[in-house]
Amino acid sequence: MTIIYLDYQATTPLAPEVRAAMLPWLGSDDGFANPHSPHKVGRAAAAAVEVAREAVAALLPTGGRVYFTSGATEALNWAIKGSGAKAIALPDTEHAAVRDTALWLGECGHDVTIMPLKNDGLLDLAEIPARQALIAVMHVNNEIGVIQPIGEIARRAHAAGALMLCDAVQSYGRVAIPDGPDMIAISAHKIYGPKGIGALWVRDGLTLDPLLHGGGQEGGVRSGTLSPALCAGFGAAAKLAQGRFETDAAHVAYLWDEALAEIPVPWRINGSITERYQGNLNIYMKQIDASRLISDVRGVAFSAGSACASGSGRSSHVLQALGLTETEARSSIRLGFGRYTTANDVRTAIQMIKTAALAQEIG
Fold this sequence. Notes:
Number of helices: 11
CATH superfamily of the largest domain: Type I PLP-dependent aspartate aminotransferase-like (Major domain)
Largest sheet: 7 strands, mixed
Radius of gyration: 21 Å
Number of strands: 12
Distance between the termini: 26 Å
Number of domains: 2
Helix content: 25-40%
Order of helices and strands: EHHEHEHEEHEEEHHEEHEHHEH
CATH architecture of the largest domain: 3-Layer(aba) Sandwich
CATH class of the largest domain: Alpha Beta
Structural class: alpha/beta
Strand content: 5-15%
């Protein structure tokens, strides 16, 4: 059975162009070489890494350096812990990679401030503390798609004497990232690239303590042998995203309109409708069991929220931060679409979801 894939926030399909870029570095011929070795084939691998680094950096602000990591989780942990900040502020809707790291540091004696949000998921800028060392805010929320005003938040963070960390995993390659943050975390597999590689962009002049100790392969501050295949894939995905930026955005906007036309009145959209990445549709219907709905609609891949927290048994902290009760949070589903989604996919999937939801009501 063909599955309609509507979980683009969890991960995206690998683009054919990305697969082609990776193949030469997957062990054939001289592609197996260590990019940190000084010989000819090692230098060739290193050159491929640097080409990829430039492609990844092209979608980020100028005046900083891209450091490859194993993923965004490592990048975010490194940014928070490596900054040495003793006072950290973040909204209550941050990804667990930020939220749980900050809460752990709070248990270790750091000063952690959780900033409340408005019911539409947007940060109340007046809630930014007057004095901080680090303010971490996600650009596009992974569960509800709300876009935070990162440029203005960075300006206020700097006025408060703080560094600003931006989790741009869901916006990179999809939404223009404004200048302002001091650190930006991104991931390849959210932009049709491979899993297992991400990056941390660090503004020039800012030095972070290493998170991983060893050979210091990445600029002396991040240790570990890089994979030329993963780097090449990330670079190819970034270059493709840059070339398709307007096309992809228009396609997602079209799919958003198609989805809204199919959503019946009893369903309510979670989060801001206007300040939102339109590839994310998070909706709630009273008394629907989202987990059961996902199980019943076997022909559609969608979710009840973050894939990273799906095994925890906890309801979404993001939705509860918007004022939803635990029952309401457990009655919400997330539909994510992107480059390879068709309008027919969206219409068919929503009809299947509506039918299953009606069966729940009747049952």
